[in-house]
Every structure is written in C-alpha cells, then in structure tokens.
Amino acid sequence: MHTKGSPSCCCSFEDYNLTTEWLLNHTSQRPKVAVICGSGLGLLADGAANKQTFRYQDIPNFPVSTVAGHEGCLVFGTIEDTSCVFMQGHFHLYEGYSLCQVTFPVRIFKLMGVETVLVTNASGAICPDYKVGDIMIIKDHINLPGFAGQHPLFGPNDERFGTRFPCMSDAYSKDLRRLAGQICSELGCSGFLREGVYCMVSGPNFETIAEARMLQVLGCDSVGMSTVPEVTVAKHCGLRVLGLSLITNMVSLDYSREEKVNHDEVLQIMKMRAEVLQRVVTELISRCSINTH
Ligand SMILES: O=P(O)(O)O[C@H]1O[C@H](CO)[C@@H](O)[C@H]1O
C-alpha cells in the first residue's frame, strides 16, 4: 500500500494485485465466502476445518489491527464443501486508517474469487425496544461519515472494480436476510432476533445524548463505528452482502440515565453471544450457495 493510486486513494490496482497474488501463492484455498469478524468475534472461524492462518503483519500491504478484541489474523478454511476466509479483526477510521485501507481486504476477496461477504459487528441500540444481546440482521444503513465526504469510493473510479455510481438501495441481500432469519429461528434465536437500520459514526467516542437523539430522529436502530465502508466497497464490486450486528449496549437517550458504556462491556456481551453467532454463521456458509443466488 505504498504506491499512490490517486490523491484520495492510497491503494493502486497493483497493490491489490500484489496482495492477491501473495495469498493465492500461499494458500490452496479459493474462498467463495468471506466473513468479517467484528469486535470480540474472532472465534467465528472456529467452525471451519482445514484452517490456515496468516497474521496481518505478514501479508504484504495489509493494515494491522490495533483494537482490543481484533486478533489481526486472516484464516482460510472450509465449512462443509465451501471454502471460506475469516478476517479476525477489521479496521476502523478511528484507528487512523484511510477508508481505502479500511476496505482493502474486501477488494482482495473479490480478486480471489469471493462471491459473498458476511459482516458482523457490535453496536449500541438506539431503538428503545431492543435489548442487550439481541442479534440484528442489518436491513439497511446510514453512512454518516459519507455525508461529510469520508466515503470509500471518493476519488477517481476504477471501473475494474465497479461503476462510478453504484446503487445502494439493495446493499444487503434480501435472500440472505431471509435465510439468516430462517436459520436463527431453527437455532432457537427468534426471541432475540431483530432486523433494522445500522448507522456508522466515525468514533472513537461513544455518542453524546444529543447525538443519540439525532440518530433516533434519523431512523437508526443501532449505531457502530464500522461495516458501512466494507459493505459499500463490497456492493460496488458486485459482492453479495449480509450484515449481522450484535447489540452490546443501550445507547443513552436520556440525561437521567446513569449507565456508561465502555469497550470492555462491549467485548463481554460479544463473548456471551459469540457461540450462537458462530453456529448461525457456520450454518449460513453451508447453506448460502444452495438456497440463494
Ligand atoms: O464494529 P466493531 O468493530 O465490531 O466494534 C464496535 O465496538 C467498538 C466500540 O466498543 C467499535 O469498534 C465499534 O465499531
């Protein structure tokens, strides 16, 4: 990631190619599904067999993880007959990375032949009906940093990846959302399953009460500091996307509320639900190419 592609993008097509070639030369896996593991969810990879792990720092051009709960490993493996790749840890604007770096792995997955991306994350509930521990299937998102010009597709468009003006009205596959709902109900998770709108903020601070109230007025059900850039770039290059968000805390909408959110608490709740999420993700991977198109 050292050659300048354009003033607003720090990765050139050669950078993407170099990393893709390196990975293709170091693994015999040809993944069809990529899983981006959110905070504390690295063990989503535990359901895979024939695992092969690379540390981000050993992969040319790859950013490294700097946040607790993000191991910084790329794990290849198989689930049933499906070859897949897991990102144990993803990247955030607040770490100081450009959105080009944040989304770098998504284009690598595309070039490796991935067709479907499952994104997971931790988020705070804005919707007062939600509860801590709920799993929210992401129906849609609000790209708040994008409104302020922090957008991963800013700058000259590279047609080799996708069109200048991608449509985002169907960013999250309806088929995959339906399948996820079905799997959750088969696994007995219906009682804590939601579907809603995720809003990305840049972080790293958690929201003020006035900000949280604004997000509620905007129609957000939950808020987090990731995912939207990866999903935007995935959709731009024609990948199918499913997003699952785990509600780790209730965002304060009221000045009288005493509870204060912190990252340790976020990780603790993720740990509590990681096993069930792992079963959902494993099942999704084994069924997503059969039941959907
Ligand atoms: O979105 P992920 O990385 O899962 O994690 C969420 O949790 C962290 C804050 O506790 C932030 O990184 C936020 O985005």
Write up this protein:
It is a single chain. The radius of gyration is 18 Å and the shape is globular. With 293 residues, the chain is α/β, with parallel strands linked by helices. A hairpin with a 2-residue loop joins strand 3 and strand 4. It has a single domain, classed as 3-Layer(aba) Sandwich (Rossmann fold). Helix 5 (174-186) packs across helix 8. It has a five-stranded mixed β-barrel. The chain has helices at 13-26, 99-102, 104-112, 144-147, 174-186, 209-218, 228-236, 263-291, and strands at residues 33-37, 49-55, 73-79, 82-88, 116-125, 135-143, 193-200, 222-224, 240-250. The chain has eight helices and nine strands. The two termini are 34 Å apart. 1-O-phosphono-alpha-D-ribofuranose (R1P) binds at residues 38-39, 67, 92, 121-122, 203, 224-226, 263, 266.
